[in-house]
């Protein structure tokens, strides 16, 4: 995954709250349980169900200042993880803005907030153990960069730059669902092999694949992604399948408690998005999944 060295980055789309204090109630072990159980809700779209506190509101005033001076071009994105996130966020949102415009819709930019340890959000106070997530309350993606090492160490993913890009694109898939009103289709159907929650997550995987298909057209990358890049995304998607996480955490698989889909399903829907490049082919709410 190589950025165009001359591509200009817009660091205003990424807030840097690393090392900042926060407000609200901290998450306790009793509220979420062990990290293995937290993994079952990785990439969640509504952390209010598992986060401490009510509406944290944002805690402090993180800015893009430090990133603006550090992350200016695609060459910077190739050198540092935080600048890489800026570049991917820019590309993902450039794609969806054009797609929405082509469909006669308006795309609203969503910021990503980088944090370390814990942070306050409109969905409650979150810790790093929750994993990356999108909060519809403040329309932000929250990400602790340490998650990528966790993905490798605890969940067996190979990692790599494009695995990181997949995670970001998946979370922005939830933002797209929020803008389109798709989240409302889930209701209270939040667990089970064919639940609304699983369908929502698989659609976000598919949307991530759609972006990957068109990413080079956004002007941030020097060339199309390689099969090695795509393999990194598929590996990351498979690593956080409900079945694989449950087998690792408890030695058995319980489909009735699925929230995100199996490893095979996550890989399938990312591939569907990537192979077709068509958001319309990401309808996980009709028929089988």
What features would you describe in this structure?
The protein has 289 residues and is α/β, with parallel strands linked by helices. It has helices spanning 29-32, 35-38, 65-70, 74-77, 81-102, 147-153, 161-180, 196-214, 227-239, 242-250, 263-276, and strands spanning 14-16, 111-114, 118-121, 124-127, 133-135, 140-143. It has a 4-stranded mixed sheet with strand order 1-2-6-5. A two-stranded antiparallel sheet has the order 3-4. Helix 5 runs parallel beside helix 7, helix 8 (196-214) runs parallel beside helix 11 and helix 9 packs antiparallel against helix 11. The model is unreliable at 23-60 (pLDDT under 50).
Provide the fold topology.
Layout: E1 14-16, H1 29-32, H2 35-38, H3 65-70, H4 74-77, H5 81-102, E2 111-114, E3 118-121, E4 124-127, E5 133-135, E6 140-143, H6 147-153, H7 161-180, H8 196-214, H9 227-239, H10 242-250, H11 263-276
Parallel strand pairs: 1-2, 2-6
Antiparallel strand pairs: 3-4, 5-6
Helix pairs in contact: 5-7, 7-8, 7-9, 8-11, 9-11
């Amino acid at each position: 995954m190589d950025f165009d060295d001359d591509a200009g980055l817009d660091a205003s789309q990424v807030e840097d709250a690393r090392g900042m204090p926060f407000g609200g109630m901290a998450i306790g072990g009793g509220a979420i349980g062990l990290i293995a159980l937290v993994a079952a809700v990785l990439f969640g779209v509504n952390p209010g169900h598992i986060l401490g506190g009510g509406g944290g509101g944002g805690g402090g005033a993180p800015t893009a200042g430090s990133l603006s001076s550090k992350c200016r071009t695609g060459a910077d994105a190739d050198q540092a993880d935080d600048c890489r996130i800026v570049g991917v966020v820019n590309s993902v949102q450039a794609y969806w803005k054009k797609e929405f415009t082509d469909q006669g819709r308006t795309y609203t930019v969503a910021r990503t907030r980088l944090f370390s340890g814990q942070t306050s959000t409109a969905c409650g106070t979150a810790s790093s153990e929750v994993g990356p997530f999108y909060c519809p309350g403040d329309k932000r993606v929250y990400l602790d960069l340490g998650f990528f090492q966790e993905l490798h160490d605890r969940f067996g993913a190979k990692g790599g730059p494009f695995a990181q890009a997949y995670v970001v694109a998946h979370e922005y898939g939830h933002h797209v669902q929020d803008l389109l009103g798709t989240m409302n289709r889930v209701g209270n159907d939040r667990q089970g092999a064919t639940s609304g929650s699983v369908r929502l997550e698989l659609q976000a995987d598919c949307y991530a694949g759609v972006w990957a298909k068109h990413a080079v057209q956004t002007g941030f990358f020097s060339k199309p992604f390689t099969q090695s890049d795509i393999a990194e995304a598929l590996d990351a998607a498979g690593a956080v399948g409900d079945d694989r996480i449950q087998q690792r955490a408890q030695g058995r698989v319980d489909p009735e408690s699925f929230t995100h889909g199996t490893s095979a399903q996550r890989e399938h829907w990312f591939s569907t998005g990537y192979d077709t490049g068509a958001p319309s082919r990401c309808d996980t709410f009709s028929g089988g999944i």
